[in-house]
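Predict structure. Chain length: 177.
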Amino acid sequence: MRPEVSRRHRTSASLGVDIASTEENAGSDFLHAGQVHVSPKGRSIVLILGSCVGVCLWDPLNAIGGAAHYLLPSWDGRGTASPRYGTIAIETLLQKLTDLGAKREQLLARVFGGGCLFDSRRGGGGRRESLGERNVETAMAVLAKERIPVVSAEVCKERGQRIVFHTGTGESFVTSL
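Prediction complete.
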């Protein structure tokens, strides 16, 4: 299986920094499903997503960023509240970022994943929403409620994604799997 061509997302905050050259110098961290990671230093966070969603937030003025990788849309109050659920993961990410000095009013977001990878779940008129679509809806609803602008979203694809997100610049590099 051959990956599709990668796409790079930039913002005016990146000021032309090339993520390929900063990855080697900054180091990288792999984020598993159900995890949240933040960094006050320029780090690269790597996520592999299918129906899961990755929400990447950063404060471009303070160069602080992080990401959440979650499996399920929202916690129903049963069992343990954990970042496996989108509502908990995004709130945890916001709290950790503000604890490091990020300003909520300066945060920007990128959203990835939420794919529907199985043919049996695609197409057809009266089908139910896929888990990936519900995960994406959760991310968009929480970010809208928190008034955090989504500057890019690459979601609900038919293939998995490998994301490299740079916490200091907000740049991301996406490869379809």
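Summary: Residues 1-6, 10-26 have pLDDT under 50 and may be disordered.
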